[in-house]
Design a protein that fits this description.
single chain, 228 residues, alpha/beta, five-stranded parallel sheet, three-stranded antiparallel sheet, 21% strand, elongated
Length: 228
């Protein structure tokens, strides 16, 4: 995956430099530029087309909401993480409506900053490797971007997003239309039968799969799973 280019927009040079150093410590990220004011930020966003903007909220000339709306209005493939001391609810609501990926409250804790970038890198990587979108895939991505400020994915305990995607992909094969057993899926993905069954039952619970009992030639019933 190519390097993720980051623009830092922060009017305090010391904090901007801190965020630069935090960013450069995370593998796969590179700082493309630093803007200390909103007018410079607008120009740099347009010229650099960064993948990610680390954006403060308040500046001497006003708030950065116009910059966020500009990014959205231009249809740029640029994501935004707000890093701000603002604790009012109204800016958070505006930021969420503007589709920000994360919202970090100052003073920034290094581990929280790094976690946010790692989560963003995972999110971009998953999207870049998708050919089709299924409900289970969307559900595996949503925890990374939906609940601003959450530090962990909210998939059920014992359900890993990457394994979930692999199992979903199995059901795109042509022979899957005839249904697959837990043993079939286990063999294709390389997991144990019990692990396979746990994931399959989870996919049943989110309406991605439907189970049915199929009787073989000798009358032995077998639980098979079909894509909805």
């Amino acid at each position: 995956m190519k390097e993720i280019r980051v623009l830092i927009v922060e009017d305090d040079p010391r904090i901007a430099d801190l965020h630069r150093r935090f960013t450069e410590r995370v593998e796969g990220f590179a700082v493309a530029g630093i803007a200390e004011g909103l007018s410079d930020a607008m120009d740099m966003v347009d010229s650099l087309q960064p993948d990610l903007v680390l954006l403060d909220l308040y500046f001497p000339e006003g708030t950065s909401m116009d910059l966020l709306h500009h990014i959205r209005g231009q249809g740029m493939e640029t994501d935004v993480i707000y890093i701000t001391a603002a604790k009012e609810v109204a800016p958070l609501r505006q930021a969420m409506r503007g589709g920000v990926f994360d919202y970090i409250i100052k003073p920034v804790i290094a581990s929280r900053f790094h976690e946010s970038l790692e989560k963003y890198r995972w999110y971009r990587s998953r999207l870049s490797h998708m050919d089709v979108v299924e409900q289970c895939t969307v559900d595996s991505l949503r925890p990374a971007a939906k609940n601003i400020g959450e530090s962990r994915e909210d998939l059920p305990k014992g359900i890993d997003a990457l394994t979930l995607e692999k199992i979903c992909a199995v059901f795109h094969s042509k022979d899957a239309s005839h249904g697959l057993s837990a043993e079939d899926v286990a063999a294709r993905v390389g997991v144990s039968r019990s692990t396979s069954r746990r994931y399959l039952e989870y996919l049943v619970s989110v309406d991605f799969l439907v189970p049915d009992v199929v009787y073989g030639s000798v009358g032995r019933p077998e639980r098979r799973y079909f894509k909805v």
